[in-house]
Amino acid sequence: MSSSIIHADVAVIGAGTAGMHAFSTARRAGAKVVMIDHGPLGTTCARVGCMPSKAVLHAAKRWSTLQALLSPGSVLPAGHTTPQQLWTQALAIRDELVAGNVRQVHQLAAEDLLRGSARFVAQDTVALSDGRRVQARAFIVATGSAAIKPAALQTALGDALITTDELFYLPELPRSVAVMGLGAIGLEMGVALQRLGVDVAAAGRSAVVAKVADPEVAQAASTYFAQQLPMALGEKQITVTRVEGGVRMQAGKLEHRAQYLLAALGRAPCLQGLEMALAGVQLDDQGSPVIDAAQPGSLRCAGSMVFLAGDSAPGPALMHEAGHEGTLAAQEALRALGDGDWPHIAERHRTTSMSIVFSDPDIAEVGTRFDRLPADAVIGTVTGKGSGRSKIMQAPHHVLRMYAERSTGRLLGASLLCEGGEHLAHQLAWAVQRGETVEGMLQLPYYHPTVEEMMDTALRDMRRTCKVRNGGVIMDAHSKRWEGTGDA
C-alpha cells in the first residue's frame, strides 16, 4: 500500500468516453492531468452499450433477411449459419472493440492513468483504494452509469433478471425473453432477439415505443413494431414472478413465460462511494449533485471545483453527448482555475440534440421535439405512400415530419420512422445546427429515387403552409404559389 501524494491541476475520475475527452482536452491545454479508473477498462458503449447492441442488431437483420427469402416449409442445408453462431460473432466483435478501446486508454494516458477506486476526503483531495492520494485543483467526475435493476425485482427473480449489462455477456443466445421497458434499448433488443428466433414479448408503461413525442411518428412506430413482436403498451401494472425455468410476465392481456426478464428501465449515474459532499458538492434530497444555478451550462457542481460529464451529468446518456461534455467540462474547469497559465482554449458549444433508435426501421428525433414546438410551428409530413424509394422498399409505414418556424422558415427539428433513418437524422441535425431554412433546403439537390427525397417532399409541404420573407421572396401562408424568384 502506497501513501504517496500525486499533484495535478485536474483529476479526471473515470476513463470512459467522457473521461478520455476531458483528459485529452486538459492535457492539450497544458494542464497537469491524471485519469483515475477502478476498471475494468473499456467504455460503456464498447462493453454493454451502443456497439454490442448494433452488432446484435446487424446479426438479427442477416438472419431475418434469410428467413424472409425462404419459401414456407423450406429446410436449410446442413452446416448453414445459425442464430447462435451469429450471436457468438456479435460478442466477438464486441470483445475486439473493447480490446481496442483499452489500448487507446493506455496510449492516451500512459503513466498518468491511475488504477483504483477513488473517494473524496477533502475539497482538493481524493484517496485511492491502494493508499495513494491525488491532490488537484479541479476534478471531473465521469464515472459512467449502470443499468437500473430494481431491488424488488432482483430479490424476486434472482439470476433470471438481467439487463444489457448481463445480456451481452451470455455465451448462449437465450431461448426466450420477457422485456420490461420499451424505450430505445428495450425496443432495439426486443426486436433483435425476436428476429434471431428468440421467443420474445415486451411490455412498457408508456403508451408509445421509444418515448417518441410526435404523435404521428409514435403511432406509426407502435403499429409497425406491434406486428414484429407481441407487446403491451401503456400498462401501468406490469407484474413479474419467478416460475420454474424462468419468469412469468403479466401486463394487461399479455402473458409471457421466459427464461429471462430483460429489464430495460434506463441507466443511473455511478456516483456511489465518491463521498462528493466532502468536496463541497451540494446534494439534493435524493443525494444527487446540484449543478451550479449561476452557470447551468458549465457542468459545475454547486459549491465546489467538481465538474460532471457523460452519464454522470444530467441529460441523455449518449456517446456523442458524453464526448462533448468531457470536452466542455475540461474547458470549464480550466477557466474556473482562472490563473491564465493555459493557452487559448477554443470554444466548443453544445450541438443540436439528436437521438436514434436503430430498430430497422430507425426511429429518430432531431432538434426541437414535437412537444416543445412553438404553437405556430409549421409541420411538413410525408409517408412511405408518397415516397418513390419507400414504395420500392415496400415500406408504406415510413413517415417523416419536419418542423419549421413560421415567421422565418428556419428549420427547428424533425421526427421520423424510416429504414436508414440514421442517415436522414444526421443530415437534418446538421441543417438545424447551421440554421437552414425551408427555402434554403429546397435549393439543395435530392437524387431520385432515394429516401432523402422524403425531405424534399416534406419541405414542399411546409412551404405551402408557412409564410417566409427572405431575399425578396414572399409566400402566402395558404397559397401553393410562390411570388418572386422561387420556383412554383
TrEMBL record:
<dbReference type="InterPro" id="IPR016156">
    <property type="entry name" value="FAD/NAD-linked_Rdtase_dimer_sf"/>
</dbReference>
<keyword id="KW-0274">FAD</keyword>
<keyword id="KW-0560">Oxidoreductase</keyword>
<dbReference type="GO" id="GO:0004148">
    <property type="term" value="F:dihydrolipoyl dehydrogenase (NADH) activity"/>
</dbReference>
<keyword id="KW-0285">Flavoprotein</keyword>
<dbReference type="Pfam" id="PF07992">
    <property type="entry name" value="Pyr_redox_2"/>
</dbReference>
<dbReference type="Pfam" id="PF02852">
    <property type="entry name" value="Pyr_redox_dim"/>
</dbReference>
<comment type="similarity">
    <text>Belongs to the class-I pyridine nucleotide-disulfide oxidoreductase family.</text>
</comment>
<protein>
    <submittedName>
        <fullName>Dihydrolipoyl dehydrogenase</fullName>
        <ecNumber>1.8.1.4</ecNumber>
    </submittedName>
</protein>
<dbReference type="InterPro" id="IPR001100">
    <property type="entry name" value="Pyr_nuc-diS_OxRdtase"/>
</dbReference>
<dbReference type="InterPro" id="IPR004099">
    <property type="entry name" value="Pyr_nucl-diS_OxRdtase_dimer"/>
</dbReference>
<dbReference type="InterPro" id="IPR023753">
    <property type="entry name" value="FAD/NAD-binding_dom"/>
</dbReference>
<dbReference type="InterPro" id="IPR036188">
    <property type="entry name" value="FAD/NAD-bd_sf"/>
</dbReference>
<feature type="domain" description="Pyridine nucleotide-disulphide oxidoreductase dimerisation">
    <location>
        <begin position="355"/>
        <end position="458"/>
    </location>
</feature>
<feature type="domain" description="FAD/NAD(P)-binding">
    <location>
        <begin position="9"/>
        <end position="326"/>
    </location>
</feature>
